[in-house]
Specification:
The protein has about 575 residues and is of the alpha/beta class. The protein is built from 24 helices and 10 strands. It starts with a strand and ends with a helix.
């Protein structure tokens, strides 16, 4: 097994980078096709959500795989490799499995414990299967992660550790108040009719809004969602569908707006929102001065180096003593101590700017990794530092319109934050608000489940790796028995059929007994960590034909595909 994942998420990259790196459906398809066409990879799958982009692959070489996958992500996202590299994380083999299972359980989500990620993993697997880029490894991985995620939700209270992104966003709009009380009687406009928009519409309906208007580029999909909401037994909401060109008029009537589309540009500009507020209140939506701005986002500590726009660390205390490079800190920002070693290998093999590396020298890199590893071991991870929002000095008027932007890239202009009479919650503000959310005790239980499942998955993969070799050995033994029985028939032609049968059974029993103990034991040993070499030892000891073993593997893969449910 040589599983590799290269990706970026809300934990490693600012929203501005995630927005630009977002992949359309067509871009995901092309990325998958180009990945399996590349030399290091034989399988590929893409997990792309509103707050993560991850490329999974089965590779035969780690460093070449990291370089190739990073390059492909940069090419298809449209963000230059040099700019993207500092925000990428890399996981390999068991750590890649651990990461994927943690994602499936909601441990790596913006809102811990949310269950939407399971549907997104299922969609990613279906796309890879449809394109024939998922082989045995990725099929096993993704199907097992779905089971692990369901187990985590059924055996623990992880759902209580966090809510769906929609619910969390509505709570932020309600400013800590009861969502049902806040939503009761309001009119809602939902822009988009995909899975996230549908969830938002259903959540608003259950929260007690009086009306839900669904706007979508394809009117039929909007009408279908409106019909589902109207016919639902657990709500009494009025729902209707409109075309996208009706959004400006509906915006004037709406109290709550949720937008989540796949558009590459803005769906709602600050000017459109300002006009809607003026249409509702009869007063212009003043653009608050930067010094008077109030947002739902919490202010974060300032960076220690004002000249470095995105510097993730306070360099003032350490730069002179250690010679840290800005590129070095950016490359490991947000990594925990266990992944720093992987990153060190990545840096060493040329995935960062070689001119910068040459200027620093190997001693500086070694000091960098050592110091950052010590920091990560102390505080858990290297903190990202951003410049704070300016402090509010003028009271902000009560909102007339509430907007929730769940799209990536964003649907609603960020400048709307500055408008009086508007409260905007977007992916960036959700990330910051959820950073300090309390972790439930159930999270520890889910982490134990993930660790157990990773060990079981690794053992199963290692055991499966040796099975073709064991089958080939038994096939060779059966051929030897058949050949010796044929020779015996020629030498003893006077034996009757009963005698021949007794001899055949006796020889088969001897061979089976001789092979039973070593084949059982080699499967047990191969399932243990470091047991991958037993298959090679078995092939060498018995001089097995590699093509015979490969043929067994191909036959098993063919059977798996035939038996796999659609």
């Amino acid at each position: 097994m040589s599983l590799l994942v290269v990706g970026l998420s809300h934990r490693s990259a600012p929203v501005s980078v995630l927005e630009r790196a977002a992949l359309s459906t067509d871009a995901q398809v092309k990325l998958l096709q180009d990945t399996v066409a590349a030399e290091p990879a034989t399988e590929a799958a893409v997990l792309a959500t509103c707050n993560r982009i991850e490329l999974y692959a089965d590779v035969d070489k780690f460093h070449a795989g990291v370089a190739e996958l990073s390059t492909l992500l940069a090419q298809h996202s449209g963000v230059g490799l040099e700019e993207l590299t500092p925000y990428l994380y890399v996981h390999y083999e068991d750590r890649a499995v651990h990461h994927h299972f943690s994602v499936a359980c909601g441990l790596d989500s913006m809102v811990v414990g949310e269950g939407q990620i399971l549907g997104q993993i299922k969609d990613s697997l279906a796309r890879a299967q449809e394109l024939h880029t998922a082989g045995k490894l990725l099929n096993d991985l993704f199907q097992q992660s779905l089971r692990v995620g369901k187990r985590a939700h059924s055996e623990t209270g992880i759902d209580r550790a966090g809510q769906s992104l929609v619910t969390f966003g509505l709570e932020q709009l309600a400013a800590g108040g009861d969502v049902r009380e806040w939503a009761a009687g309001r009119r809602a406009l939902v822009i988009g009719a995909g899975s996230m928009s549908s969830l938002a519409a259903a959540t608003l309906a259950r929260a007690g809004v009086a009306e839900v208007v669904v706007a979508n580029r394809t009117l039929e999909r909007a009408e279908r969602l409106a019909q589902i909401l109207t016919e639902a037994d657990d709500t009494a909401v009025t729902a209707r569908a409109v075309r996208m060109d009706a959004v400006p008029g509906e915006l004037t009537r709406a109290d709550v707006v949720v937008s989540c589309t796949g558009a590459t540009g803005l769906v709602l500009t600050a000017e459109a929102v300002a006009q809607a507020v003026e249409g509702r209140t009869g007063q212009p939506a003043a653009d608050l001065a930067d010094g008077a701005r109030t947002t739902v986002r919490a202010a974060l500590p300032a960076t220690g180096v004002g000249t470095e726009e995105n510097c993730p660390l306070d360099l003032a205390a350490v730069q002179g003593a250690t010679g840290f490079s800005v590129l070095g800190e950016a490359a490991v920002a947000g990594m925990d101590a266990a992944t720093l070693e992987q990153h060190a290998a990545w840096v060493d093999n040329g995935t960062v700017d070689r001119r910068e590396a040459a200027r620093r020298g190997p001693e500086a890199d070694a000091e960098l990794i050592t110091a950052l590893a010590a920091t990560a071991a102390t505080v858990g991870r290297i903190p990202e530092r951003r410049k704070p929002e300016p402090a509010a000095v003028i009271p902000r008027p009560a909102p007339a319109v509430f907007l929730l932007d769940l799209a990536m890239p964003r649907d609603i202009d960020a400048a709307v934050h500055r408008l009086a009479g508007v409260r905007l919650v977007d992916i960036e503000s959700l990330a910051e608000a959820s950073a300090d959310a309390p972790m439930a005790a159930d999270v520890d239980q889910v982490r134990r489940i993930v660790s157990d499942e990773v060990a079981a998955f690794g053992a199963a993969q290692r055991a499966a790796h040796i099975t073709p070799t064991v089958v080939a050995l038994r096939t060779m033994a059966a051929d030897v028995v058949a050949g010796e029985i044929a020779r015996l028939d020629g030498r003893l032609p006077d034996l009757d059929e009963r005698q021949r049968g007794e001899i055949r059974q006796a020889v088969h029993r001897v061979v089976d007994k001789l092979l039973h103990a070593p084949t059982v034991r080699v499967k047990q040993l191969a399932a243990e960590p470091g047991g991958a070499g037993y298959a090679d030892a078995l092939r060498t000891l018995f001089d097995l034909d590699p093509e015979t073993v490969a043929a067994v593997s191909r036959a098993e893969d063919s059977t798996d595909k035939k038996d796999r449910p659609a």
